[in-house]
Please model this.
Amino acid sequence: MSLRFSLKKTFPGFDTSVELAAEQELMVLFGPSGAGKSLVLKMVSGIIKPDAGTVSVDGETVFDSSSCIDAPIRKRKIGYLLQDYALFPHMTVRENIAYGVSRADKARTDSLVKELIEVMRLSGLEKRYPHEVSGGQKQRAALARTLAAGPRILLLDEPFSALDFQVREKLRADLVNIHRLFPVTTVLVTHDLEEAFMLGTRIAVINNGRFEQVGSREDVFYRPATRNVARFLGVRNIFDGRVSKIRDEEVEMDTPGLGAIKTHAPKRLGLSAGGPVTFCIRPEEILVIRPDRPPGRVADNVVEGVILSTTGKGSTHILYLGAGSGVVLKIELPNFVVRKLDLKEGKRIKVALKKENIWIIP
Model:
């Protein structure tokens, strides 16, 4: 199944104009609160009518403003799962799941419901009512009910945001497995960076009602197309400078506080000596140079500075390194590295920004 849409909608103080194509994949819509993520899903599903545009599902047009086509929600066969579960409180888990299945073939209905109960790890809970199961179990039951209806497209609007961390982590893994077993074209909305990276085969970054970048997980995370995308995806280390030298596809940039920084840049970027340039590097891609070892392959782009602060973050530590001229580098390191190198506030260290880890923002 495939999903294609090109939609426009205007509200007082906000307008959106989006275009996207998704195949049989798990696509993530990522962006800050108020960017228009949920609005996109509601327009695709038919809950909100766009001002203009088209929506097609597996080649069938279900909305076309110019041709006055606007298929009812029930006929679009688009499953829409919200974060509040929306289970029927007077029905058991099994009855909720079976609700959306056609009753034409009882044997098939029983078989499908049984399969979904097993896949969703709900065995033993079939006769319980929604108030008798946990939040994670409710969400799995709601997802099973949505899949039981046989949707052509599955829309998930921040389905795990109301759950605690451990439950969310398990449900993310469940969703990957469920998508493998039921390969429905799926679009998931989230503002959780970890969730986007874990689930998205492709990621569409939305800001102010526009897609700023659509691409593979690796492209979006490590090769952001705009400063906003870099910022939303936690790059943080975003710097401006000027091109000082260009040789083939190697560029040297002069950046206050960092000095001369070299990286690779394709000619299509159209950089020129003396021109402005913006580049970035992810916090986890910055290497700390051990004082007892020569720099070796990381002789380029060595920056020296003082650790301004350190903050624990579960299995990693965040370091802020003052590099001069007010420039601060954000560095993320595993805890064992921080302990082994005794990295603490006030210590002077050297770090390397490897050429292949630096990305020039077009």
Q: What stands out?
A: The domain at 3-231 is CATH 3.40.50.300 (Rossmann fold). The mean pLDDT is 91. Residues 5 and 55 are 4 Å apart (CA to CA).
